Amino acid sequence: MEYTILYEDTDFIVCTKPAGIASQNEKGLQPALTDLLKQYLSKQSGKKGEPYLGIIHRLDKPVGGIMVYAKTKTAAAALSKQITENQIKKHYYAVLCGIPKKTTATLTDYLIYDKKNNYSFITSSSNPNAKQAELSYQVLEQINPNPNNPNETFTLVDILLKTGRHHQIRAQFSSLGYPLYGDLKYNPAWKPTSTFSERKTNIALYSYCLELLHPKNQKPMQFSSIPSDGIWKFFSVLSNTEKLP
User: Fold this and answer.
1) Model confidence, pTM
2) pLDDT digits (tens, 9 = 90+) for 143-157
């Protein structure tokens, strides 16, 4: 459960969340990223008592990538406002099962969140409980680890998330027939390929870049991290990436 701190000052902290660990405490046996960060902050300060750590946004447990947490209530309010007003830009990499018909597109759908089953599904815009979900994507690379099966093609896409709905990316691509690699919830028939020799895998979705304004001085800031293990290492475009986005 290793995480990496990308940036820290008196107002907030930016780090990478490993896939398989929760963004915040979920009363499980495994410590969440918030637990680990609070331990780190306590050790750094040397003060007694639990340090403040404001949750600004979340990533699903099986998803990895960049997270930002506030270290003060003032910073938490400022960063949360940026989230509400869509000022924080979130960029993701995702691996799709299959080949999208369009190499670049904007997806706009309406989602309903089924809290009981922790599942989001697309519905009509006329549904009063539906929330608009929008993202843009661009195809970066395609690989086929099994030449004997031309249908076993995986597509790496670069995503700009424009709204932050529950399981939005997973639900939208699954509805098009291109579910995310490793996503058993939205692709229950998925099985690891023999080429990758995986017994267990996390969802191939990674928040690789965050753009925000500093909560105190409003300075534009950008943080990036490239995934390099699991299926990600098979895409040459990622190994050759130096600057993002």
Assistant:
1) 0.91
2) 987 777 666 789 999
